[in-house]
Amino acid sequence: MTTTTGILSDGRFLRGEPVTIDFTTDGRVVIEGAGSRHEIDLREIRVSDRIGSIPRFLYLPDSRVIETAGNDVVDAALARQKRGRIAHLIHFLETHSGLAVVATVCLVAAGVLSLYFGLPALARSVAFQTPESVEREVGRIALASLTQRLGPSRLSPAQRFRVQSQLTRLLPDRPADRLPRIHFRSGGGTFPNAFALPGGNILVTDEFVALTSHEDEIASVLAHEIGHLEERHGLQIALRQSFALLLVTSLTGDLSTLTQMAGVLPFLILQSGYSREFEREADRYARDLLLDRKIPLNRFASILRKLSDARPKQAVDLTYLSTHPSTDERLAMFPSPAVPTPVPTPPSTVPSSLSAKTPPARLNPIPKTTPAIKIPGLKQEPEQQRPGNRFPSIRHQVDPELSPELLKRNLRGRVRLRARINERGVVTAVEIMKADHPEHGPLAEAAVKQWAFHPGEKNNTFVAATAEIELLFRGRSVSLVDIRY
User: Fold this and answer.
1) Could you say which of 129, 200, 220, 369 is the most buried, measured as most Cβ atoms within 10 Å of its Cβ?
2) Exposed, middle or buried: residue 323 (CB in 10 Å: 0-12, 13-18, 19+)?
């Protein structure tokens, strides 16, 4: 059927004129009324969308309007001209409630997925496009806001150096002006924490430093915070907290509104923390960095256990672990190494089939049993040193280099050396005290001269020390078996 009826209104009178509407196959519309006949191209007629069974309106070029209930006839005519497809689809969904429900569910799901995946992706994109000058300003405001709630640090210069020196240990190839900046604050005695703020800032509390007993523990936590800085997690969390801020920043490129969130950013981190996703990213970054710097992963596990024990049982928990994934989950990423089996010293000469391509000597870790350490003039207490006193510790080791010819001989033996370490931790002189094989002495001496130490402390003052170092050459490997100060 291509014919229907309707009421024609000319816009001047309220009373309409009944008409017959015929849609021809060639795209014409013939309108016949009482003593009148009009023929118009359908493409010149604007047709209202179909809504259920409500009558449609045909808007003619001369401002007249026809109201008709022949929706099916009108739809068929429009379909021949490939018009009204979207309106037809909407009507189809309207008349099929099941499909309408499915479409609604899909629309809601699409919205949820866009927020769950699209919002973080957009925040990450904006964060990495933010200029460093803006990020530094955000970090400055955030740090100033947090500093008002914390007290000044009471750490000595030596204690601060002990923390700051870990940055050059973790990032030795980075220029000094590009290293993160560590800010020391006091948490009032019950606030062991360290966390990163935008702009390359890491805040460390006195309580956290007091909790550590080894430089590797400090380096492990700093490696985690460097991961937050490298991934710009601080900016991302600020952008995620305000959808309007993220939308305005991404659409207009106006980053000035980002600084308005800076004042509350540190408290967002303390109360709700970085997302678990961010924390896991920072843990993976720390694990890779520690492995690259040959820092035992179990040092991170050690400080995590100490921090876990330091968490308050009641009241507000603002410790380092309060906003992180569970300790057990994180310990799985930083396992303790297997205890090495002691290797007895073999005879001095053993036949060998090593070729010239044998890998160079590698310096094995210090054995599990820590040797006794003494500094002249520094009294040692049974379990630990008094506050303000600390023995030197190795910060950087260099492996002895064995020539292919020496490796082929497979000489095994011990070398004992005496090294002088100044108050900056630099080795100033090395003396060979004893060598089972003369060939090993100069190699050990050359390697130890390149070692670096964290200087010893006496009454919170850096002091020079003398170290007696014993190395064990075992063919293609070398072990540090003893060190006494």
Assistant:
1) 220
2) buried
Residue 476: closest CA among 321, 319, 357, 307: 357
State the Cα–Cα distance between residues 436 and 440, nearest whole angstrom: 8
CATH 2.30.29 domain range(s) in the chain: 3-94
Q: Which residues of the chain are under the pLDDT cut of 50?
A: 271, 314-323, 337-385
CATH architecture of residue range(s) 362-484: 2-Layer Sandwich (3.30)
* Cα(85)–Cα(150) distance, integer angstroms: 65
Of 457, 259, 313, 317, nearest to 375 (Cα)? 457
CATH 2.30.30 assigned to domain 3-94? The reply is no
pLDDT in tens, 386-411: 556 778 888 888 888 888 888 888 88
- Pairing type for strands 65-68 and 56-59 reads antiparallel
Residue 485 and residue 467 in contact, taking contact as beta carbons nearer than 8 Å: yes
- Structure token digits, residue 284: 């993976």
